[in-house]
Amino acid sequence: MARKILKKSAAKKVAAKRSAAGKVVARASNGQGSQHAVEQFLYRQAEILDAKRWQDYIDLFTDDAMYWMPPEPSHTTWDGMPAIFAEDKNLMNVRMRRVMHPDAWSQRPLWGTNHVVGNVIIEKEAANGDVMVRSRFHMLEVRRDDVRHFAGRYLHHLKKTKDGYRIKLQRVDMTNAQAAYDYVLQVWV
């Protein structure tokens, strides 16, 4: 009798483990949905940048968002620290108006970019759908016969909204941030 009870108890434990494993699989399946949605968001962001659709790019950010590019990966804050970029949405709008101004000679000759985003990994996913995601990027910039390459790591804090994801924080750690360049970056990477 005791053996039957032990066997039933062991069978229940195995069934519970299988049930838990099933739940894990279901969560992984949902995670794959999030993975795909996040990847598509990042790919669209890159396309918007390459098309120079500046207002559409800024609209990807929440009202309290920050775009931050520290000069080196060891920096943990932009507050009181030097930064290549440390822009809230207001400063991003100022940059857009400056770049689009007809007298913005720094934008002549016209130039183009090509972004490639990959190695997208969701680090954290909150119950409300917000995610923290890291990825790698490579951006090619062409101006006349000059070609520059920028590469590094993105860290996005994405807020889930009824309209899809919005960027709360985008951190850009460039591998070649300390390189010497003939001219400075004019827009976001």
Label this structure with key terms:
single chain; Nuclear Transport Factor 2, Chain: A; six-stranded mixed sheet; 3 helices; 6 strands
In a few lines, what is going on in this structure?
This protein has 189 residues and is α+β, with helices and mostly antiparallel strands.
CATH topology label: Nuclear Transport Factor 2, Chain: A
Helix content: 25-40%
Q: Beta-sheet strand percentage?
A: 35-45%
Shape: globular
How is the largest sheet built, in terms of strand order? Answer: 2-1-6-5-4-3
Number of helices: 3
Overall structural class, as computed from helix and strand content, comes to: alpha+beta
The largest pleated sheet is described as: 6 strands, mixed
Radius of gyration: 23 Å
Q: If classified by CATH, what would the architecture be?
A: Roll
Instruction: Please count the beta strands (DSSP E, at least 2 residues each).
Output: 6
In sequence order, what are the helices and strands, one letter per element?
A: HHEEHEEEE
Let me know the average pLDDT.
Answer: 82
Ends: how far apart? 70 Å
Count of individual domains: 1
Low-pLDDT sequence parts: 2-30
The CATH class is identified as Alpha Beta
Q: What do these coordinates show?
A:
35% of the residues lie in helices and 36% in strands. With 189 residues, the protein is α+β, with helices and mostly antiparallel strands. It has one domain: Nuclear Transport Factor 2, Chain: A, CATH 3.10.450.50. The protein has a six-stranded mixed β-sheet. Strand 5 and strand 6 form a beta hairpin. The termini are far apart.
